[in-house]
Each structure stands twice: as C-alpha cells, then as structure tokens.
Design goal:
A: mainly beta; four-stranded antiparallel β-sheet; B: mainly beta
Chain lengths: ~120, ~110
C-alpha cells in the first residue's frame, strides 16, 4: 500500500527558505502516470495547490507562488521535495504531499510549518 | 483561474438526514477533472469522488456525485455520525488546479 510521509523544517524564519521532503514507500515514484503534488492549508482555512512534478522532471506551479517555488523529484531516493523561498507569516500552514492520477488519491499526514522569528 | 464556489458554507443536519452540497465553477470544467474530498479535524483530506461521479476505493455508496459543466453536487443519502466533516471540491481542468472553500457538515 502506497504511503507518503512529509519531513522537514517545522520552524522557518521570515525571508528564509522552507524545505520539505515527501518520502514515498510501498511503491515506486517512477511508476504510473502520476503527478507528485504539494498542497498546503493555513490554520483554519482551506486547501491550496502549490504545484506538482512528474517523474520525468516536468512540473507545474501555482502562479501565485511560482517565483518562490521549486518542486523536484529524486527517483534514486524515491522522494520528492518542496522549496519555498522568501517565506513570510502567510506561508505558515500544514503542508501535505499527495499523489494524483486523476485525483489526489493518496495523501501524507501533513507537516506543520510555522514562519516566525 | 477557475474559481470553485461551494454552498452552503455550513450545513446543519441530523444523523439519518440527506446532505446536498453544491460546487459551482466560474467556467466549464470537464466532469473527468472534478473531485470531492472529506476532511476531519487534524487529518489529511480523503478522496471521496473522482470524475465527478466515481466513488474512490472504500467509499460507501451513500456518497454520490453528479453534475457537469459548471454545476456539481455531492450527495450523502443518509448521514452517519462519521460523515460530519468538511467537504471540498477540486478541479484539474486547467493548468491551475483549484479547490473550493469547503462546506462544513455539522451535527444539528
């Protein structure tokens, strides 16, 4: 059974770079026509798609975050990563990784990232 | 950007009642690219429906989805205690994937 697990810095200072990794287990990140996605949820608010990457390395980002986001895949480690630069308090959220064939069918448990000095 | 507007914001119902949740898109979305999720406090969302009307694995048949174009509906035929949660619609029909703002189904 495919499982996803987020890890990374839980506390980031303003203007620094948020870095998260999603480890994929129970299956290969290279198999199937899947996109590997990052989604976030600010406290008490709804869901926001950040962007996704395919095993080929092609990607798509939310235009509102595009200038600050990098999503990459590491097939050798069976994981994918998110970097978000120049963070502010508005980037405080629970960050989820997910897999999408035709919908987000597998999710990680989420990891809380707080931006604070 | 395709904006998804969900209504109502909150639905107050009793167990056993029928819940009807609406998701309206600002422009037409292929039904193939419309999904619904359920989220409970402190948990990740769970996929309920994909392709507007196909139930995901393990989802009970009291959940059903319908709609096309700009109007989509999620129906819960008889609410069970575990169904009280927040529900989100989501579209993949454009380059920018978007979610609705959510409908909270609460116990009356």
């Amino acid at each position: 059974q495919l499982q996803l697990k987020e890890s990374g810095s839980g506390l980031v200072k303003p203007s620094q770079t948020l870095s998260l990794t999603c480890a994929v287990s129970g299956g290969s990140i290279s198999s199937g026509p899947y996109s590997w996605t990052w989604i976030r949820q600010p406290p008490g608010k709804g869901l926001e798609w950040i962007g996704h990457v395919y095993p080929s390395g092609s990607f798509s980002y939310n235009p509102s975050l595009k200038r600050r986001v990098t999503i990459s895949v590491d097939k050798s480690k069976n994981q994918f990563s998110l970097k978000l630069s120049s963070v502010t308090a508005a980037d405080t959220a629970v960050y989820f990784c997910a897999r999408a064939p035709d919908a987000f069918d597998v999710w990680g448990q989420g990891t809380t990232v707080t931006v604070s000095s | 950007e395709i904006v998804l507007t969900q209504s109502p914001g909150t639905l107050s119902l009793s167990p056993g009642e029928r819940a009807t949740l609406s998701c309206r898109a600002s422009q037409s979305v292929s039904s193939s690219f419309l999904a619904w999720y359920q989220q409970k406090p402190g948990q990740a969302p769970r996929l309920l429906m994909y392709g507007a009307s196909s139930r995901a694995t393990g989802i009970p048949d009291r959940f059903s989805g319908s709609g096309s174009g700009t109007d989509f509906t999620l129906t819960i035929s008889r609410l069970e205690p575990e169904d009280f949660a927040v529900y989100y619609c989501q579209q993949f029909g454009s380059t920018l994937w978007t979610f609705g703002q959510g409908t909270k189904v609460e116990i009356k």
